[in-house]
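Model the whole thing, not chain by chain.
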Amino acid sequence: MAFVNLQNVTYKYPLTKAPVLQNVNLQVDEGEFVSIVGPNGAGKSTLCYALAGFVPHFFKGEISGSIEVDGKESSKSTLDEWVLNVGLAFQNPFNQISGAKYTVFEEIAFGLENIGVPREEMKSRVEDAMALTGIRDLADRSPYSLSGGQQQRVALTSILVMRPKLLVLDEPTSQMDPIGTREVFGTIRKMAEEGMTVVLVEHKMEWIAKFADRVIALKDGSVLLEGKPNEVLTSDLLVENGFGISRYTSTAREAKKQGIWKKESLPVTLDEAAEGFTK
Amino acid sequence: MNIEIKDLRFTYPTGLEAVSGISLTLEAGEQVAIVGQNGAGKTTLVRHFNGLLQPTSGSVKIGDWDTKKTSVAKLASRVGYVFQNPDEQLFSRDVLTEVTFGPRNLGYSKEKTDGLVERALALTELSDKTETNPYDLSPTWRKMVALASIIAMDTPIVIFDEPTTGQDAVNVARIANVIAELQKEGKTVITITHDIDFCAENFERVVALSKGQVLLDGPAREILGQEEILAQTYVEPPQLTRLGKRLRLKETVRNQEEFLNAIARRA
Amino acid sequence: MHERLSFHIKRDSFIHNLNPLTKLVLTLTLILIAFTFPWYWTPHLLVLVAIIPLSLLGKVFREFSVTALRLILPAAGFLFLMQAFFQPVGSDVIFKFYFLDVTQESLMFAFRNAMRVFVMVSAFTLFLVTTHPSELMSDLTRRGLPGQFSYVIISTLQILPQIIAKSQTIIAAQRSRGLDTESSFFKRAGSLIPLVGPLVFGSLMEVEERAIAIEARGFTSKQTKTSLHEIPDPSFDQMLRWVLVALIILSIALNLWLS
């Protein structure tokens, strides 16, 4: 039995005409790192909300099918119970700052206060989480004084500190520079290796190819493709459906037509491209 | 219409010096990308071009107008500025009204305004959405409305602040197309961007800022290959430039065409 | 940039180290005594024997006196003038100003009221300057104030400066589109919609996202909340609060008895 199990999930927001998710089937194993790609409007964020319990508990609307995480069924649970198992961080870091706290340290502790973690344990968990994401030096700063990239790290840390079994991340590195992105992907990979299940929406293909176990391509609310990162991210179907792809892939595809790229498979990362063009 | 920046310095009331002595000339019709890490002074610099910020010292001239002596409302007829977040400027109940707002403020005739609005809507592929409320559109399309509402002002200089953030591949292509069209019309396009691949594919000149100063300035081909210097402002060269370096190609390549040509020559 | 809206000045002083509730009770005591104790010179004396010594004890005398001289005193002065001129009491006219009579009674009356307001605002200022808002709120939450209530207070304090910053960006964006915000009042009134519209729409979206973000961090959890900071409440504080409450009762009782 998969750790995350979505069966025929169809969902419509109260104010939209058409369903945003249509017959989504999705299984993720415990400790697996799955990445979701897709053009704007494909339903990526809605899928994240569904995994994290906000669809339908927060947004209401019409839902059918079943959402199970760790053997529990979302429709039979309440949101405040659900979030203990499933953590969510999303794109806009500014709106994720609670506003209730004056320092980054307090901000990260906010969730632990809410769920009643004793003070000493709280402090050590906050310390550990900050060390993990490399923001120890921000501990005493006001969350509002940080750059977008730093705020995104704080948002991620604020969720990691809750130690969810399933971590759902919706473009958590959109405002980070290349170095920051690399570090954060490394952290997420490490969490997955320690047994946390990760579902990550991202459009930085190179990083997905390097770090994710599996990729799911979403289009118009349905799963278009799924499989190993390299298979999915180099598929012709992605280009035809308006997905963003790595420049290495598109260039190698063109080179293949011209007979310059000799390998059968196409590259996603710099290393793969360099290797293929060297031969 | 040239932009002349002389010894520009700007200090925020908090005491933070965001621009520390920049001199630049941006020629009429140039396509310039401004890159650099957060806090390098990119937005602070371009907000001087339409007078939103006034130099602490030094000067900025737009053609023959000194921004110190010209109101923002007047400068708006020469410099259009698309803000990063469309939600910070959209307020009308339909797309047409929104796009008409700018040219109407500039006092153009009804005929001229209608023509400009129509052209801007066509360019941004919004012609079939004129009656829609901008807030019923997806964020992607709201971005296009924001673009259209500035393009319709028909200014000789257009500034884009992070136009591709949060946009998918299809919309990035649309935005690139808009920039190419503006170039054909002889307009100066200045773009702040983090998206270095987008920068490589659409801009001829690159200015890299770091700590309020110009770190590098020149043709994109020369600038984007300078990995070590760019790293000082947390910018990585474009994907294909890096690939070209890895393969030890003789020249710096920026885009697919240049890369494939260079590979073909090598073979 | 505005980082936050807080008057708190971080110092290590006797006042700073008092329990937040003690400080709140002390503030209320000063205000209530100034308004109820039935002796004319009470508020004046309170400034000398309480407000000024407390600001010294709290190591904020310099900051406090600047605020008092620049803001509180002018406001109290204005109130004094208003009441001196417009309070129709007494008959002992000291001087006339056009059709307005100023009597000795109205002067005395105005002087006391101005001093009462001065004590009230000063006491609150001292309270805000020496108390960190989040300490106050976690202390009150621990004592049974609903968590949602203290969240609303603190987040409003924090988010207001962000809204101000955002409205400045919106103004900049619309000015860039040729909106003339610097000319006549008539034109400016017409330019309100382009400024307010984005602020309202934007805020609605932000509120939804922020609600999701705090919910994801267990905000509505049925668990009893814990607190990162331990806020000490020694027996000295508890005793002091009882003494202060007794003073309040005494002052009010005297006031009722003598009236």
